Protein backbone atom coordinates (compact mmCIF):
# COMPACT_ATOMS: atom_id res chain seq x y z
CA UNK A 1 0.00 0.00 0.00
CA UNK A 2 1.51 3.38 -1.02
CA UNK A 3 2.62 5.60 1.85
CA UNK A 4 0.40 8.57 2.60
CA UNK A 5 1.91 11.95 1.66
CA UNK A 6 3.36 13.79 4.65
CA UNK A 7 5.50 16.75 5.65
CA UNK A 8 7.76 16.47 8.70
CA UNK A 9 6.88 18.54 11.74
CA UNK A 10 10.17 20.47 11.53
CA UNK A 11 9.40 21.77 8.04
CA UNK A 12 5.83 22.58 9.06
CA UNK A 13 7.13 24.59 12.01
CA UNK A 14 9.21 26.62 9.56
CA UNK A 15 6.08 27.33 7.50
CA UNK A 16 4.22 28.45 10.61
CA UNK A 17 7.09 30.67 11.78
CA UNK A 18 7.27 32.30 8.36
CA UNK A 19 3.53 32.92 8.33
CA UNK A 20 3.75 34.45 11.79
CA UNK A 21 6.60 36.68 10.64
CA UNK A 22 4.36 37.86 7.80
CA UNK A 23 1.74 38.96 10.32
CA UNK A 24 -0.76 36.20 9.55
CA UNK A 25 -3.07 34.85 12.32
CA UNK A 26 -1.33 31.50 12.59
CA UNK A 27 -3.43 30.09 15.43
CA UNK A 28 -6.60 30.62 13.42
CA UNK A 29 -5.02 29.26 10.24
CA UNK A 30 -3.79 26.13 12.03
CA UNK A 31 -7.27 25.57 13.39
CA UNK A 32 -8.80 25.89 9.94
CA UNK A 33 -6.25 23.43 8.57
CA UNK A 34 -7.04 20.94 11.32
CA UNK A 35 -3.50 21.01 12.73
CA UNK A 36 -3.18 20.78 16.50
CA UNK A 37 -0.27 22.70 18.11
CA UNK A 38 0.97 19.43 19.61
CA UNK A 39 1.54 18.07 16.08
CA UNK A 40 4.22 20.69 15.51
CA UNK A 41 6.45 19.42 18.32
CA UNK A 42 9.13 16.80 17.96
CA UNK A 43 10.03 14.93 14.78
CA UNK A 44 6.65 13.58 13.77
CA UNK A 45 4.87 13.62 10.42
CA UNK A 46 1.89 15.76 9.48
CA UNK A 47 -0.48 14.65 6.69
CA UNK A 48 0.32 16.57 3.52
CA UNK A 49 -3.36 17.42 3.02
CA UNK A 50 -3.33 19.40 6.28
CA UNK A 51 -0.14 21.24 5.33
CA UNK A 52 -1.57 22.04 1.90
CA UNK A 53 -4.71 23.37 3.57
CA UNK A 54 -2.54 25.52 5.86
CA UNK A 55 -0.79 27.03 2.84
CA UNK A 56 -4.13 27.62 1.15
CA UNK A 57 -5.36 29.37 4.30
CA UNK A 58 -2.22 31.51 4.28
CA UNK A 59 -2.92 32.53 0.69
CA UNK A 60 -6.55 33.33 1.48
CA UNK A 61 -5.46 35.37 4.52
CA UNK A 62 -3.33 37.61 2.35
CA UNK A 63 0.07 35.95 1.91
CA UNK A 64 1.53 37.35 -1.30
CA UNK A 65 2.71 35.53 -4.39
CA UNK A 66 6.29 35.51 -3.08
CA UNK A 67 5.42 33.78 0.23
CA UNK A 68 7.06 30.50 -0.82
CA UNK A 69 10.09 32.26 -2.33
CA UNK A 70 10.70 34.18 0.89
CA UNK A 71 10.50 30.94 2.88
CA UNK A 72 13.84 29.70 1.52
CA UNK A 73 16.24 31.18 4.17
CA UNK A 74 14.23 29.62 7.00
CA UNK A 75 14.39 26.21 5.38
CA UNK A 76 18.18 26.34 5.22
CA UNK A 77 18.72 27.42 8.81
CA UNK A 78 16.04 25.45 10.61
CA UNK A 79 14.04 22.53 9.23
CA UNK A 80 16.58 21.28 6.70
CA UNK A 81 19.76 22.07 8.62
CA UNK A 82 20.63 18.43 9.25
CA UNK A 83 20.08 17.50 5.62
CA UNK A 84 22.19 20.45 4.46
CA UNK A 85 25.12 19.30 6.60
CA UNK A 86 24.98 15.90 4.90
CA UNK A 87 24.78 17.41 1.41
CA UNK A 88 27.44 20.07 2.02
CA UNK A 89 30.03 17.50 3.13
CA UNK A 90 29.69 15.18 0.11
CA UNK A 91 32.60 14.81 -2.30
CA UNK A 92 30.96 16.06 -5.50
CA UNK A 93 27.77 17.69 -6.72
CA UNK A 94 26.62 14.31 -8.03
CA UNK A 95 27.25 12.60 -4.69
CA UNK A 96 25.40 15.38 -2.90
CA UNK A 97 22.36 15.04 -5.17
CA UNK A 98 22.36 11.27 -4.70
CA UNK A 99 22.08 11.83 -0.94
CA UNK A 100 19.32 14.38 -1.48
CA UNK A 101 17.28 11.96 -3.56
CA UNK A 102 17.79 9.15 -1.05
CA UNK A 103 16.97 11.04 2.14
CA UNK A 104 14.42 13.70 1.14
CA UNK A 105 11.62 11.17 1.89
CA UNK A 106 12.53 11.51 5.58
CA UNK A 107 11.57 15.20 5.35
CA UNK A 108 8.62 14.90 2.96
CA UNK A 109 7.43 12.40 0.35
CA UNK A 110 5.23 14.91 -1.48
CA UNK A 111 7.71 15.10 -4.35
CA UNK A 112 9.29 12.26 -6.32
CA UNK A 113 12.85 13.24 -7.25
CA UNK A 114 14.97 11.70 -9.98
CA UNK A 115 18.24 12.54 -11.72
CA UNK A 116 18.12 11.75 -15.43
CA UNK A 117 21.36 12.50 -17.28
CA UNK A 118 22.08 16.06 -16.08
CA UNK A 119 18.47 16.98 -15.28
CA UNK A 120 16.98 16.91 -11.79
CA UNK A 121 13.22 16.29 -11.94
CA UNK A 122 10.68 16.79 -9.14
CA UNK A 123 7.25 15.32 -9.84
CA UNK A 124 4.18 15.24 -7.66
CA UNK A 125 3.27 12.27 -5.47
CA UNK A 126 -0.50 11.55 -5.41
CA UNK A 127 -1.42 15.24 -5.50
CA UNK A 128 -0.05 18.59 -6.67
CA UNK A 129 1.70 20.51 -3.85
CA UNK A 130 0.73 24.13 -3.27
CA UNK A 131 2.70 26.55 -5.43
CA UNK A 132 4.22 28.08 -2.28
CA UNK A 133 5.86 24.74 -1.51
CA UNK A 134 7.04 24.34 -5.10
CA UNK A 135 8.58 27.83 -5.06
CA UNK A 136 10.43 27.08 -1.85
CA UNK A 137 11.64 23.74 -3.23
CA UNK A 138 13.02 24.95 -6.54
CA UNK A 139 14.69 28.08 -5.17
CA UNK A 140 16.25 26.15 -2.28
CA UNK A 141 17.68 23.59 -4.68
CA UNK A 142 19.07 26.11 -7.15
CA UNK A 143 20.59 28.33 -4.49
CA UNK A 144 22.06 25.54 -2.36
CA UNK A 145 23.45 23.45 -5.21
CA UNK A 146 25.24 26.53 -6.55
CA UNK A 147 26.44 27.50 -3.06
CA UNK A 148 27.85 24.03 -2.41
CA UNK A 149 29.84 24.14 -5.64
CA UNK A 150 31.10 27.68 -5.02
CA UNK A 151 29.41 28.88 -8.22
CA UNK A 152 26.57 31.22 -9.11
CA UNK A 153 23.16 29.79 -10.08
CA UNK A 154 23.74 30.97 -13.66
CA UNK A 155 27.00 28.99 -13.79
CA UNK A 156 25.40 25.81 -12.48
CA UNK A 157 22.10 25.70 -14.39
CA UNK A 158 21.40 26.20 -18.07
CA UNK A 159 17.62 26.11 -17.62
CA UNK A 160 14.96 25.54 -14.95
CA UNK A 161 11.39 24.48 -15.67
CA UNK A 162 8.64 25.66 -13.32
CA UNK A 163 4.85 25.43 -13.28
CA UNK A 164 2.83 28.37 -14.68
CA UNK A 165 1.33 29.27 -11.27
CA UNK A 166 4.71 29.64 -9.58
CA UNK A 167 6.35 32.95 -8.66
CA UNK A 168 9.88 31.50 -8.54
CA UNK A 169 10.51 32.23 -12.23
CA UNK A 170 11.09 35.92 -11.56
CA UNK A 171 13.63 35.14 -8.85
CA UNK A 172 15.46 32.65 -11.06
CA UNK A 173 15.65 35.16 -13.89
CA UNK A 174 17.09 37.73 -11.49
CA UNK A 175 19.79 35.14 -10.73
CA UNK A 176 20.56 34.86 -14.45
CA UNK A 177 18.93 31.44 -14.92
CA UNK A 178 16.80 30.76 -18.01
CA UNK A 179 13.23 29.76 -17.11
CA UNK A 180 10.67 27.73 -19.05
CA UNK A 181 7.15 26.61 -18.22
CA UNK A 182 6.58 22.89 -17.70
CA UNK A 183 4.37 20.23 -16.14
CA UNK A 184 6.79 19.62 -13.26
CA UNK A 185 9.96 21.09 -11.78
CA UNK A 186 13.04 20.37 -13.87
CA UNK A 187 16.56 21.67 -13.23
CA UNK A 188 19.03 21.33 -16.11
CA UNK A 189 22.60 21.30 -14.80
CA UNK A 190 25.45 22.76 -16.83
CA UNK A 191 27.85 20.33 -18.56
CA UNK A 192 30.30 18.87 -16.07
CA UNK A 193 28.43 20.22 -13.05
CA UNK A 194 27.82 16.80 -11.50
CA UNK A 195 31.56 16.08 -11.39
CA UNK A 196 32.49 19.31 -9.60
CA UNK A 197 34.24 18.81 -6.27
CA UNK A 198 32.55 20.55 -3.35
CA UNK A 199 34.79 23.04 -1.47
CA UNK A 200 33.16 21.90 1.78
CA UNK A 201 33.74 18.19 1.19
CA UNK A 202 34.61 16.40 4.42
CA UNK A 203 34.76 12.61 4.33
CA UNK A 204 34.83 12.22 8.13
CA UNK A 205 31.82 14.45 8.68
CA UNK A 206 29.96 12.99 5.71
CA UNK A 207 30.39 9.39 6.84
CA UNK A 208 29.29 10.28 10.35
CA UNK A 209 26.17 11.98 9.05
CA UNK A 210 25.46 9.11 6.66
CA UNK A 211 25.47 6.62 9.52
CA UNK A 212 22.82 8.66 11.27
CA UNK A 213 20.62 9.21 8.22
CA UNK A 214 20.76 5.53 7.32
CA UNK A 215 19.16 4.46 10.57
CA UNK A 216 17.86 7.44 12.51
CA UNK A 217 15.56 10.42 12.46
CA UNK A 218 16.29 14.12 12.24
CA UNK A 219 16.80 14.60 15.99
CA UNK A 220 19.58 12.00 16.05
CA UNK A 221 21.25 13.64 13.05
CA UNK A 222 21.45 16.98 14.83
CA UNK A 223 22.72 15.33 18.01
CA UNK A 224 25.44 13.50 16.07
CA UNK A 225 26.69 16.77 14.55
CA UNK A 226 27.12 18.18 18.05
CA UNK A 227 29.17 15.13 19.07
CA UNK A 228 31.40 15.77 16.05
CA UNK A 229 31.79 19.34 17.29
CA UNK A 230 33.13 18.02 20.60
CA UNK A 231 35.81 16.06 18.77
CA UNK A 232 36.85 19.14 16.78
CA UNK A 233 36.94 21.29 19.91
CA UNK A 234 39.14 18.77 21.72
CA UNK A 235 41.39 17.90 18.79
CA UNK A 236 42.35 21.33 17.48
CA UNK A 237 42.25 25.08 17.80
CA UNK A 238 39.99 26.00 14.90
CA UNK A 239 37.68 28.91 15.80
CA UNK A 240 34.27 28.13 17.21
CA UNK A 241 32.76 30.22 14.42
CA UNK A 242 34.41 27.94 11.85
CA UNK A 243 33.09 24.81 13.57
CA UNK A 244 29.59 26.30 13.60
CA UNK A 245 29.88 27.03 9.88
CA UNK A 246 31.08 23.50 9.08
CA UNK A 247 28.05 22.07 10.87
CA UNK A 248 25.65 24.24 8.88
CA UNK A 249 24.88 26.92 11.47
CA UNK A 250 24.59 30.33 9.87
CA UNK A 251 24.83 32.08 13.24
CA UNK A 252 27.48 30.89 15.74
CA UNK A 253 25.09 31.85 18.54
CA UNK A 254 22.66 29.15 17.38
CA UNK A 255 25.44 26.55 17.52
CA UNK A 256 26.54 27.72 20.98
CA UNK A 257 22.96 27.53 22.24
CA UNK A 258 22.44 24.01 20.83
CA UNK A 259 25.78 22.81 22.23
CA UNK A 260 25.00 24.15 25.70
CA UNK A 261 21.54 22.59 25.64
CA UNK A 262 23.02 19.21 24.69
CA UNK A 263 26.08 19.14 26.99
CA UNK A 264 25.45 21.72 29.72
CA UNK A 265 28.46 23.89 28.83
CA UNK A 266 29.31 26.28 26.02
CA UNK A 267 31.87 25.24 23.36
CA UNK A 268 34.37 27.68 24.88
CA UNK A 269 33.88 26.25 28.37
CA UNK A 270 34.26 22.73 26.98
CA UNK A 271 37.53 23.64 25.26
CA UNK A 272 38.97 25.48 28.27
CA UNK A 273 38.07 22.68 30.66
CA UNK A 274 40.13 20.19 28.68
CA UNK A 275 37.23 17.73 28.64
CA UNK A 276 37.54 14.84 26.22
CA UNK A 277 34.57 13.56 24.21
CA UNK A 278 33.27 10.16 25.20
Automatic annotation (TrEMBL):
SMART domains to which the protein is assigned, alphabetical: HTH_ARAC
Keyword annotations: DNA-binding, Transcription, Transcription regulation
SUPFAM superfamilies for this protein: Homeodomain-like
Domain HTH araC/xylS-type: 221-273
Gene Ontology molecular-function annotations: DNA-binding transcription factor activity; transcription cis-regulatory region binding
GO cellular component: cytosol
Protein name (Swiss-Prot/TrEMBL): HTH araC/xylS-type domain-containing protein
Organism taxonomic ancestry: Bacteria, Pseudomonadati, Pseudomonadota, Gammaproteobacteria, Pseudomonadales
Amino acid sequence: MPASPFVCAALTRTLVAHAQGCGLPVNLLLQRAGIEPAQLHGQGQIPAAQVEQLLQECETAGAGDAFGCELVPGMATHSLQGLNILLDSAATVGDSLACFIRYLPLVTNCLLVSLEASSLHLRRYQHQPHHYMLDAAVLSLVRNIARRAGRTPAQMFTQVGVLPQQAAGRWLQDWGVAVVSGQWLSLQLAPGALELTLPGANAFLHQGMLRQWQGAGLAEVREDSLHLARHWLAAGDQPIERIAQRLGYRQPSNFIRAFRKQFGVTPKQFRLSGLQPA
